[in-house]
Amino acid sequence: MATATGARPAVGVLALQGAVREHVAMLESAGARAVPVRRPAELSGIAGLVLPGGESTTMSRLLETFELLEPLREAIAGGLPAFGSCAGMILLARQVLDGRPDQQQLGGLDVVVRRNAFGRQVDSFEADLPFAGVPGGPLHAVFIRAPWVEKAGDGVEVLATVPDPEDPPDGPRADRIVAVRQGAVVATAFHPEITRDERVHRLFVELVRKA
Question: Is 140 a catalytic residue?
């Protein structure tokens, strides 16, 4: 794994599909040197990796097409810091519910996620969330066809939860887990890359520096 240019660690953004440009811009603003990743050889030049929001089943197929699936699994298992938003969270999970039977997982997080858990595109919503480890008050989170974490393993730290805005406090979608961390792997069900708030990306860049 590569380290930094000066104090700016080289952080890859999986550039097969999804919100690549948005993550690149946020990483650069958060103090990293963003590097698009499309091929296995490019993994050796980065100190961390972002898996963007997009369409998880499409990204899963493209990982196989571009022969990145196994190299990515090995890199993350070997300690490469990773951050996934929305579809990226799904890919990092050890198991996905309501996915395609042939959908592949990277397995960097000991979590079970439910795909499109909050509903379709028309059910997208925004919420202000307390977020553990991030100073400055609640984060404004944008949920678009978002997953949630159905089950988290003992080694997984819950960073944020959100009640469904149309659910009562004790309803089936209330207080669901939407952000987690396990070691140097972080995931959010929402899209911090499409807001102006850099705090989640800064948190990840600091994890990369420490790793």
Answer: no
